[in-house]
Amino acid sequence: MNIRILKGVVCAAFLLAGLICGSEGMRGIMAQKGSVRPGPAMGNAECLACHGDPQAVKEADGKSSSIYVNEATFGQSVHGSNDCVSCHVDIREYPHDPAPQKVSCATCHEGMAQEQAASIHASTRVSGKPAAGCVDCHGNHEIFRKDDHRSKVNRFKIAETCAGCHTDEKVIRDYGLAPAHFIQNFRSSAHGKGMYDAGLSISATCSDC
Q: 39-91: per-residue pLDDT in tens?
């Protein structure tokens, strides 16, 4: 066999092994922690058979919430090449019994999780009160790189993302936060005008101050 062809075959084999082991390696780590049951993992097509339906909902505590995952949007996200079970490591079959555990972003993003643990949001959760977590700011199945205009943490979107909670009257009342009109004040400030009117990404936004 031509040596170049042989090298190409070997490289391809290693690449394929890496892709397979990336997901299975993660599952192995979680299995050691006792959070994954043995058996074959579900494929994305199986998950999307239900979760790909825009009308799909789940009932919990008397409330309905969407469990829809837009396959096209997820495919374009930073996790688009991942298997569903790379994050939802405890899901092996349907129906999901017991109920799936909450995804731990720290499994892969340990450094960022440690940084976030020192935040006001994390300390609020430790005190027993609800507060923003990873998915509240970054999203879940539609996470994009921060330089992508679709990202919730794109510099031009950060104030809007923060406003999702910080303009909620109940949140403001329960936590004694600044009045909801702060977002309008920001937009009319020098920083806000620099960002939204002049399009300057270097203008300060919520996370800078």
A: 567 899 999 999 999 999 999 889 999 999 999 999 999 999 999 999 999 99
User: Is the CA virtual torsion 112, 149, 194, 172 positive or negative?
Assistant: negative
- Token pair recorded at residue 2: 């031509």
Interval 10-30: pLDDT, tens: 344 434 444 444 444 444 444
* Distance, CA of 150 to CA of 184 (rounded, Å): 22
CA 110, CA 116: separation in Å to the nearest integer? 10
In one letter, which amino acid is 11?
A: C
What is the pLDDT at residue 3? 43
- Which residues, in sequence order, are CB contacts of 89 under 8 Å at separation 6+? 26, 27, 30, 35, 36, 107
Burial of 86 by CB count in 10 Å (0-12 exposed, 13-18 middle, 19+ buried)? buried
Alpha carbon separation from 44 to 84, 100, 124, 159 (Å, rounded): 6, 16, 35, 34
